[in-house]
Amino acid sequence: MSDRPRVGRLQDLKFKRIPRNEVSSEAAGSSSSVGPNRRRISRRTPVESDDNDFGPGLRDEATRRLLKRRAPRNPVPPGERVVEKQTRFSSNRVISRNDLINLSVHAEKIAKVLKKKPQPSAADWQIVRGSLYQIPFENVDQKTVHNSGAMRELIKLEDGNFEFDLPEDISLDAQMILKRWRNGDYDPHLLRGIDLNQTVVPGRGGRPAKKRARHYKLEEDYNWKRDDNVEGNHDLFVGEWWPLQICALRDGAHGDMEAGISGNNIIGAISVIVSGGALYPDLDELERVLYCGTMGVEAPINYADDPEEREHGDRIPSPNTKYLLLAFEKATKIRLFRSSKSPSPYAPAEGLRYDGLYTIRAYEILDKKNAVYRFEMIREPNQAAIRGDPEDPGCKPNRVELAQWHNIKKTLKGER
Known about the structure:
Elements: H1 3-12, H2 25-32, H3 61-70, E1 82-88, H4 97-114, H5 122-134, H6 142-147, H7 150-159, H8 168-182, E2 194-201, E3 211-218, E4 241-242, H9 245-250, E5 261-264, E6 268-274, E7 283-284, E8 288-292, H10 319-330, E9 333-339, E10 352-367, E11 372-379, H11 399-415
Parallel strand pairs: 6-9
Antiparallel strand pairs: 1-2, 2-3, 4-10, 5-6, 7-8, 8-11, 9-10, 10-11
GO cellular component, one term: nucleus
GO molecular function: ubiquitin protein ligase activity
Subcellular location: Nucleus
């Protein structure tokens, strides 16, 4: 009779939390009085750790990660910009035998035309142009360039030691290709050295995203980035073309990814882009350009009065306009680019084209209140002809460059 109350008390212990490998003193005392023929009754409950974010008693790292992946993600607040995809256009290329064959075919075509007597015809020069248009987009490396004979033929076009007259645009195109090859840059992609971040703006109220934005930036580890803070041609050739302004920044042609004026406080403006102007249009006469500076800025409180009479509230020239004024004083030779955004009849079909060096000869104030200046820029003599006439066989950008750029835009549009 005395054993029944003890067993009842032990059964009640199953609802209590008992540490592992321990028995309550009450259970231990009661079991000690059990006779030798009776088995001691003890109940142990599993150890339970303190509750955490993943539930009680879960110590397995794999289980914790699994539950974390299954946990619902926090919804993106409306209006927050989220990076969706990053695209790098430069890649590790593999050169095949077919690439060597393709480049060798171009070299043979050029060599065959140059051997014609007494001189090649217009149709022959078109064959050379076709090869020069294709060569920059061939998949090559240093070994392929030399083994194919393409380097040898391009050097002949660069030197121009022939008994006949060599078209100027052919010589320039050959020099553009050789410049990149000599620098060790064989990547054929138009956007080499550039990363593209595509971002999405989520819709409000659970609506799907409708607006996407693209942000281009230079690769941090790109080895062929050139300094742009150099006066003069800076090893550029008339007619060089870029699909985007950031490509001109990559090659050291223009020093800003968005602004149309680039320069420093020592020699003033170094390069400008003719894109039509914002408030006052640029007037483009090919050899003579009337280029407008940017809108003036508000004068600081302690701004000293300049020699010219300035009424209270008048703006002062912007930093970019000051670059142009300093370039006028220093007679700096400025690189001039024409953009496809310009309404000028000499603008390229796409992107930007380098059209040579210009010098500021005079300027005028169009709007004194807003400090808007217009500068007369005259093209320097003894330069290659501007390659902007669509009827000219050497017009830039050429048909292959435009086709390559349109294919890239189609690919990017498909990713949207």
